[in-house]
Amino acid sequence: MNKRKIINDPVYGFISISSDLLYDLVDHPYFQRLRRIKQLGLADIVYPGALHTRFHHALGAMHLMSQALKALQEKGHMIWEPELEAAQAAILLHDLGHGPFSHVLESVLLTGVAHESITLVMMKDLNRQMNGRLDIAIQMFEGTYPRRFFHQMISSQLDMDRMDYLNRDSFYTGVIEGSIGADRLIKMLDISKDQLVVEEKGLLSIENFLHARRLMYWQVYLHKTLLSAQAMLTQILHRARELSVAGEKLFATPDFARFLQNEYSLSDFDTQPDLLRAFNGLDDNDVWASVKGWKSHPDPVLSTLCEMLLNRNLFKISFYSAPPGEEILAPLRNRLLDNGIAENQLSYFMVTGETTNWAYAKEQDPIRVKMKNGNLLDIADASDIPTIEALTKIVRKYYVCWGKNVSLRG
Amino acid sequence: MNKRKIINDPVYGFISISSDLLYDLVDHPYFQRLRRIKQLGLADIVYPGALHTRFHHALGAMHLMSQALKALQEKGHMIWEPELEAAQAAILLHDLGHGPFSHVLESVLLTGVAHESITLVMMKDLNRQMNGRLDIAIQMFEGTYPRRFFHQMISSQLDMDRMDYLNRDSFYTGVIEGSIGADRLIKMLDISKDQLVVEEKGLLSIENFLHARRLMYWQVYLHKTLLSAQAMLTQILHRARELSVAGEKLFATPDFARFLQNEYSLSDFDTQPDLLRAFNGLDDNDVWASVKGWKSHPDPVLSTLCEMLLNRNLFKISFYSAPPGEEILAPLRNRLLDNGIAENQLSYFMVTGETTNWAYAKEQDPIRVKMKNGNLLDIADASDIPTIEALTKIVRKYYVCWGKNVSLRG
Amino acid sequence: MNKRKIINDPVYGFISISSDLLYDLVDHPYFQRLRRIKQLGLADIVYPGALHTRFHHALGAMHLMSQALKALQEKGHMIWEPELEAAQAAILLHDLGHGPFSHVLESVLLTGVAHESITLVMMKDLNRQMNGRLDIAIQMFEGTYPRRFFHQMISSQLDMDRMDYLNRDSFYTGVIEGSIGADRLIKMLDISKDQLVVEEKGLLSIENFLHARRLMYWQVYLHKTLLSAQAMLTQILHRARELSVAGEKLFATPDFARFLQNEYSLSDFDTQPDLLRAFNGLDDNDVWASVKGWKSHPDPVLSTLCEMLLNRNLFKISFYSAPPGEEILAPLRNRLLDNGIAENQLSYFMVTGETTNWAYAKEQDPIRVKMKNGNLLDIADASDIPTIEALTKIVRKYYVCWGKNVSLRG
Amino acid sequence: MNKRKIINDPVYGFISISSDLLYDLVDHPYFQRLRRIKQLGLADIVYPGALHTRFHHALGAMHLMSQALKALQEKGHMIWEPELEAAQAAILLHDLGHGPFSHVLESVLLTGVAHESITLVMMKDLNRQMNGRLDIAIQMFEGTYPRRFFHQMISSQLDMDRMDYLNRDSFYTGVIEGSIGADRLIKMLDISKDQLVVEEKGLLSIENFLHARRLMYWQVYLHKTLLSAQAMLTQILHRARELSVAGEKLFATPDFARFLQNEYSLSDFDTQPDLLRAFNGLDDNDVWASVKGWKSHPDPVLSTLCEMLLNRNLFKISFYSAPPGEEILAPLRNRLLDNGIAENQLSYFMVTGETTNWAYAKEQDPIRVKMKNGNLLDIADASDIPTIEALTKIVRKYYVCWGKNVSLRG
């Protein structure tokens, strides 16, 4: 049976699954689960088209990896068939460990367990099931494979992951200014001393890439309304866990209930053999179904927050350049009290936070540019105007969000 | 407060909400629910990008309505501001009555209740809440408004509903051959004797529209793999209802449980005041959460089917030009029996069906072409080659789908 | 020196020139000339974006050829490196023999010399210059290469030439309904018994391709206004030749003057060694520069027609289903006479013609579909509805165009 | 007769001509001439798709103007019908005064006559022909119309001219990173105290706009290969004029010959009534036809340069950060002498130049941002990171181009 397959993709036209191993990975329940986890979590509350999944993103990143490696081959670099397959496998699986609404969930239910760690647990489990066929892929993912550029294409400031997600998020949100020209970027890649580099003539493309990334952060990933919705879901989960731990029986799928009731650390995945299976049972539907079930729960805090989120009656949110002081917070708090919120419920309806962003981090593994004279320069040094320098600046914003129109149920 | 708003849409760029009424409708929980109902149900199993919702489709159809009415105004037709708003409101709300996985659900849980009827119940309920602000919109929707073309733009063989869904489905599936050129179609519309007509120079565009529609049917809406997945979900719901009615307690959100346990008719929506509220509680998450919950249910039929669907281990499906006879069915049945399926379980793992399609129905309200000499012709008569005639032919296909690799759980 | 090169293309993103031979061909003056010949001649008079050249089209067809051959390789067909290069070379050069405003010019100046014949003369000349490096390409072009499918990909009803020009013409005119989904078409190609075939699952895509082709013919290639402009340019050239032959000195580049003054046949290209060089000197600029020069020529017919064409004051044109009789022509003729046109000038200001089109010609080398059972069927027999049948029907239209508002100069 | 018309545009879909006046302007020979002048001159030598004309650009800018004014109307600003038409007329005509290969020609043949001045001469001439129907448009163009924002939309750092040309040039070159998101930009425009401003929430879009502009400059407008081709055409015209002035008879259309043989200043357009008519006779074809005619001229410098340009055998070009000194120039000069170029011919085959660019000029009329608190800030002050500051920096590059492989003819 020929397992090669072509998948339609509005972003790239078609994505080819080019080997039996890749087909088997896509077909595996671990990977099929990603069909039910949206890449951008709650972002469709702002951008209604942003419903694309981690499944599609992972396929897209695999596609870019295959395109990029072919471009490198055409420049004369030797890349063996098993390397080609392993690099695609590694990028395909790089997001396996994400739970639903990843950043929200990780801040409440799986605190202290990085999704990358779970990814690795799952990749190793898959490797066992597949008798070692993922050995090289895992080395590339972990960064232990000798040819360094493979890891850089999987995880760096210019990896196929970022290229696909910026491309795809820009496409599905409709924020077309965020488009990065992945086609051209890929044709500008090269290898020098086993490092991933960019040809000098790709300098403008990289600047555009970083600029687009910055734009996407402020326009999409850190959009005020999205931060507000995330804050609400976070408070819902805090309350649910609080009630759960206090013995309250909450509506939830069995797998989700388990994570609501227990606090797990990474090592539990080793000692509790079925924990990985349970984790693999989680997706967006578990969270939404619970939110829907909880909207009629007797606890007024829980039911009010759920009803609000479902009907897009969101917290009001304001940004500040410094942490907001009592002169800002006190009046909000009073308004909530006036609305009938009790002292001990206040924290569920008023949340402060901060958010930071920079488009390019000089201190990390840099983006290297290969100048025409053969020298390798950090992109920040290669550019002829201070734009890149500007993009390395960290921008930090503080916010308060609160339920301006809360009316407690029950 | 200014309620005008602009919404990003990858398909059209931007969609404007151009009045307070429209804003209030979009903001209403009835409409927000559509955020959680995918336009194409299970189709993302074949086309992973096809995750767009009825929410986005309804906004898109409203956008096309506004564009089309403006084009008609520019051609000198008088259209009053309240008509402009009402037509947009009507098309915005036209799909309110859809449940999740509409065709599947309606075949099991709400048999005999057309979604259009529920839409009308909900529109009337909204009209009450809004003190009659939807009077004209409802007339247009029902076809009682005197100027006939408004209804035709909401519901006919050339309505804004079809234009948006073909456009949008083509876009998100990536089946670009299905693109209909909505821009040009809209510019070709005209009004003659209060009927919606197409200018003669738009003939080729209409042919292309019908051709694209046919292509989308076979390539997307009636795709074999999708029919197979739908058959599986149908069998899951049949089994769940059977168990429910037999008194078994099944995991479900409260609203979904209600529909699983009871059989409702349209009149129940009048007599049970909270039934509409419960219906409005249903969305895709309820169904998926139950499928996830049921995958560990003790009933082997239910759990097996759920596990299969979740992991995309689908029924095999074959098409036939005539209803398949025993020479085809018997061997399949025997194979299932060999695999350990009991006689009384067979019907859950082997399903026959038929599917029909035609791109243009002559007997319905026709698409009228205004010839240069002023005559109105049915498109099928106006075209100079028999293509359109060909597109009126009903194509009927029969299928069998069955669980080739079923291995019953438990 | 590395001659590989990447060329930007708004249609496909990037086009790669993948070998030294291909680079040398692109670089050759014969091919660079195509930069100055628009693919659609006068069509920008209707579609102002339709300015793309035969140069870009030839590169695009080469790109599709490379994509298609790679897709066939991935399906397991052996295609040797020299074949890959030769097929690309052949399609790259397939339009070398086109003059400017090909159909117009061939009807007046090079009557009886098919552009394909000149292409072959030029390919053979190039082959001499390149010491036989085009041997295989020429065999493929002529159809004498043993593996038949190469020729079919260069010239048949489903060749890379058509795919690119439909795609490209649709893109640059903005007639997006003419888009053919070349990506998918290419992935549906296969080889069976050395013939080019389409997989059965590509049936809908082929139907769409033929439908798009028909639409492009009526919407673009045979657009009324374009036919009218072509008729005017034809009459301009007729008059210019008449004057030239009568010894009048007309403004023209030396190469163009030679073709205006002499009537050549194909054999002259053999006997007059510099004729090919002169032909290669012709491009759109020669024609336009002359039209501009002639607008102040003392001959009132010539100058009037040139002025009219330059200022887009075009003949009026009407279509008829039968050849127009005297009851139609006589009044037009009288109107022209009333406007001061002399009897012997009439033919320059009133032109009749006919135009025919069919989307698919059954009697030619058919498009073959490989059914799932392995049978090869003509597409017209494989389709389940009579659409294709309909598309084989020849549509014939008759037209008259005439200078409604002519006012003779001088 | 209804003169309203819809024109296909691959960039925006459709462009509407919305009034009789606008139709008459488009139809006028002055405007039709722009069909034959490419927007980007020689740029198709690098980007083969870049063949779009000033005609299409002017229509596109008119389209954006109409979209922008409608968006302003929707925000509650009163804009009268005659203003709407005048602003569209003004932007439609803003490039009338461009000759073919504008920057090249102006540096040789019309030195000291800015194309804006000729535009104004032509607008005033049109206004006379049209009995004053362009009065307001001319005021807006000149900046004397009281409502200042109209002029800013026609000519400023955020005018519809730039928006369209960046958009269009990005589209036709295929440099998609240069896309500016004109749709969103337009929705962010507002008016404050009769000045054109941008809403604060459009800040990121403006940054993206400036960034895209910078990218387009270096990637397209100042592309090395394009600068080289322009240098060659410049030298060709210098030589042709030199020979012309020396009494040599050169092949040229009558209108082009006139400009080759005479040196005109702006005032000549007043005193020589037919000079404007002659200017209006010039387009790209005159230049190319002459280059083609001159390739067989006896002067070896002229014929060699023409042959080289036609066959894309271009000067080699190098960039420097400082003006190149003798250590760079002398060896090149010697190489040319070795190749048989005479001393007095050297200047035709070796050219130095400089090129500067900045994305945003602070000292000019700034782009104003309307902050949420109502304040107007210069974009460079409103942005939270120093990107914009960086974009104001002038970048200056020096180049030498020379005929590395020149072999003199004859």
Structural class of chain A: alpha+beta
The number of domains of chain A: 2
Taken from the alpha-carbon principal axes, the silhouette of chain A is globular
Summed up, the helix count of chain A is: 21
Mean pLDDT of chain A: 93
Q: Do you know the CATH architecture of the largest domain in chain A?
A: Orthogonal Bundle
Number of strands of chain A: 9
Q: What is the CATH C level class of the largest domain in chain A, in words?
A: Mainly Alpha
Biggest chain pair contact, residues each?
A: A-B, 45 and 45 residues
**What is the name of the CATH superfamily of the largest domain in chain A?**
Hypothetical protein af1432
Strand order of the largest sheet of chain A: 3-4-7-8
How would you name the oligomeric state of the polypeptide chains in this document?
Answer: homotetramer
Low-confidence stretches of chain A: none
Tell me the major beta sheet of chain A: 4 strands, mixed
Question: What is the structure about, briefly put?
Answer:
The first copy, chain A, is α+β, with helices and mostly antiparallel strands. The first copy, chain A, has helices at residues 20-27, 29-32, 54-74, 81-93, 102-108, 115-129, 135-142, 148-154, 160-173, 182-188, 203-221, 224-245, 254-261, 268-271, 275-279, 284-294, 300-310, 326-338, 346-349, 379-382, 387-391; strands spanning 5-9, 13-17, 189-192, 195-199, 316-320, 350-357, 368-370, 376-378, 395-402.
